Amino acid sequence: MKITQFQERLFEQGREYGYTDMEIYYSASRSVAVTVRGGEVDSYRVAETHGISFRGLIRGQMGYASTEQLETDSIAFLLEEAAGNAAVLDTNDDSDLFGGSDQYPQLQTYTAGLLDTPPDKLIDAAKKLEQLVLHADKRITMVRQSSASVREHEVLIANTRGLHCHQQDSIGSMSVYVLAGTESETVSGGWFDYDLSNFEAIDPQRIAERAAYEVVSKLGASSMPSGMMPVILREDAASSLLAAHASIFSAEQVEKGFSSLVGKLGQTIAGSNITLVDDPLMERVPGTTIFDAEGVATSRHVLIEQGKLNTFLHNRKTATKASTTTTGNAARGGYKGKLGVSYHNLHLEPGTRSLEQMIAGIEHGVLITELHGLHAGTNPTSGNFSLSCIGYLIEQGAIARPVNQITVSGNFNELLSDVVELGNDARFTGSCTSPSLHVRELSISGS
Amino acid sequence: MLQPIVVERILQAALETGGDFAEVFVEDRTDRDLGMIGGVLERALSGRDYGIGIRILKGVFSVYAYTSDLSEDNLLRTARKAAGALDGSKLDTVLNFEPLQVDNRHPVLQQPSAAQNARKLDIMRMAHEALKQGDPLIEQTSVGILSWQQKVLIANSEGLWAEDTRTYTRLRLSAVAVDGNQRQSGMRAPGALAGMEFIEGLDIGAEAAEAARIAATMVKAGYAPSGKLPVVIENGFGGVLFHEACGHGLEATAVGVNASVFAGKLGQQIASPVVTAIDDGTIPNAWGSLNIDDEGMKTQRNVLIENGILKGYLIDRVGSRRMNMAPTGSGRRQSYRFAPTSRMNNTFISEGDSTREQMIAATEYGIYARSLGGGSVNTATSDFNFAINEAYMIRNGKIAEPIKGATLIGKGIDTLQKIDMVGGNLDHGQGMCGSVSGSLPVNCGQPTLRVSEMTVGGRKGE
């Protein structure tokens, strides 16, 4: 059944059931992905999925339910389950649906033809990437996988208050994962790149060169003595650390006491060189979006301005509780989740110097390129982290050798006040971005 | 679900271009999720996942297509789109489905339903009170009950027709203790392949007291030291050590393409002789158990390591083709959105003859890791890491002060050789394991054991 038809029937039957207001959040995605190994296509994936989340006001309570089956018998499932869920809720704080913003930003996020990139073109590109990386360095022993994919996604939010928001986005990407080594040693690594409108704009040569460097430069790594020392978190490692702690800026986490920033609004929580922005309207990056999961028009917000905590991220419910206005950061974990709060395109404002220049300023320290086990080794409630990592030893302003079997420990909140310099190398590859960060001192544990 | 005649048409369409094997995985799953924060029920969600994955193999080349539109037209179109990735001609295939007879080893007494909401709510309120009263330092609580039922149909061009229903129930308890500006959480999350009877059978008060005790203990803990130390790891979820250090490295996903440090080592001594490790998908009602795996094969008990010698791998259908070895009932996937790969079920180290007291007493200076968190591993290098949720120093053979903020790291191939004492108190803990075929319920288990040396990533120089 088409979504518009499903929506009409659902709202009609919902009214008969006793719902006074109703909303659907529909999301659909289509993708094609190929992986190549040893010059042969190893896997080929085609996906087409959709799902719908329903919420409705019944007897003054909002109930939630979702389904991936858009058939007639799903309507009864949604109405009954949402009513059952509404009946047990103790809260009554998201009882009004949003009728729509006066104006929505205009942004180009979708290229219609991207998904129609011929599969042969994806396969050829992945094969070419595999060959390029194999020939990039003799020490490369195996390309574990070389991949190419195109994907498009759409979201529709519509409700009985007149809201009707629709947005589509698309992305093409390529990645390669490589092993290198000798009899006694194996190392692994990879690289990826993307383009939002044209698959052919992705340059396999650049990915191959970078992937080869990433893996080969790890050869000969060993641990290093423990100690407190200056650390540079390379942009990708810094971005992953920021993402692991970014929930502390959610007003929902603050209100529930799970954020370490409780009571810190308006205070200086970071060094004066730290400015943290959520900018959903930045063009040509993956985190771009013109409305949030409640249908509120998005806008740019400065969360930390030169060290001072200006605002948390809000949806309409958290904003009401905190007597402020929504920042347009309502989010759902796909169509299944309850309405929560999240960032769209969170990033630290970059500095002016390159990673090389930052390294040159360090007598003895570590450049960290990968952090492992972030889902387990970080605690956003306390800010404490202790993480397995790899990178390079820095001696006298230059990379001396690769290091592995070490951990880095510290506290994210303390780290924000301890950043000596931010690099100019931020890469917008996801929804959370940091440039390289030179941190005055962190604890390294090794041999 | 789908009628045999429709499934047959899909499989025939999938094989039109020379595939030698085709399979459908149809899934109809209903989730119910209740969440309470600080005693207030503020999360009540129901969801239905519904879709089909169509897989075609030709040798080890695999094509996978999935869709949530189960109209016959769309299914045939999807099957043909997938078949379009191959350019051969159709092999003659006669399909004759033979329903697989499965004895249900995991009985469910109380099937999940929306009608259980009221009872769940009572239990959650009780759990909240018990968490709150567990310690004066507890300032926030979180309680959740998650249950889901997954109905699957797996049919393939070899004539397999297998249906199964999997019912999962899990309780999550978490307490946040605050002391000055320190905040720490403690949690418990028991789960089973069972219905509500699992939660009814739990001692909720004891589980809550344990979560509160961990939070209140850890909020007063000092930082862990750094460096290489002996570590005594408590039984139960401590088995995540083996799961990360070795388990993933024994999966065909890595071994079959020679991207595991354990590839080619069958029959070799890869662990200390006190180590015997097993992956068992048949344990009744255990969180990681299944009647049949997601390729329709009955699960089994697989001995991976016996007295330190590598005895076997975890092998799915594609892995079996790559490695020329029999599959082990280990093909799993989170949902129809994932092609199956080799995965763990309930993995554990079996019992030895030491005691916890002996291990602590034999350790002059080290760490006692009472409760572990999650971790990860790079199977190509066997570099692994996992977090400690609750730990103490061991000084002069005695458990001393609590420590926090430590990650344990090592190389699986080294660490397995350094397990020098194994206790007799096997227990299992529940976790969600993430890998290429998605996030899956698994048990990690072990008796208390000692590793003679691991790198402890703390913050304090000592």
UniProtKB/TrEMBL annotation, chain A:
Q: What is this protein called?
A: TldD/PmbA family protein
Q: Which residues form the Metalloprotease TldD/E N-terminal domain?
A: 23-86
List where the protein spans the membrane.
none
Q: Which family does it belong to?
A: Belongs to the peptidase U62 family.
Q: Which InterPro entries match?
A: Metalloprtase-TldD/E_C, Metalloprtase-TldD/E_cen_dom, Metalloprtase-TldD/E_N, PmbA, TldD/PmbA_N, TldD/PmbA_sf
The Metalloprotease TldD/E C-terminal domain is annotated at: 226-446
Q: Which SUPFAM superfamilies match?
A: Putative modulator of DNA gyrase, PmbA/TldD
A Pfam family annotated for this UniProt entry: PmbA_TldD_2nd
Query: Which organism's genome codes for this protein?
Result: Paenibacillus wenxiniae
Among Gene3D superfamilies, the record links this protein to:
PmbA/TldD superfamily (3.30.2290.10)
Residues annotated as domain Metalloprotease TldD/E central? 115-219
From TrEMBL, chain B:
User: Keywords assigned by UniProt?
Assistant: Hydrolase, Metalloprotease, Protease
- Stretches assigned to the Metalloprotease TldD/E central domain: 114-213
Per UniProt, residues of the Metalloprotease TldD/E N-terminal domain are 22-83
Q: Report the SUPFAM superfamilies cross-referenced here.
A: Putative modulator of DNA gyrase, PmbA/TldD
What are the residue boundaries of the Metalloprotease TldD/E C-terminal domain, all occurrences included? Answer: 226-458
Q: Which InterPro entries match?
A: Metalloprtase-TldD/E_C, Metalloprtase-TldD/E_cen_dom, Metalloprtase-TldD/E_N, Peptidase_U62_metallo, TldD, TldD/PmbA_N, TldD/PmbA_sf
Q: Which residues form a coiled coil?
A: none
Question: Into which family does the record put it?
Answer: Belongs to the peptidase U62 family.
Per its record, how is this protein called by name?
Answer: TldD/PmbA family protein
Species of origin reads Paenibacillus wenxiniae
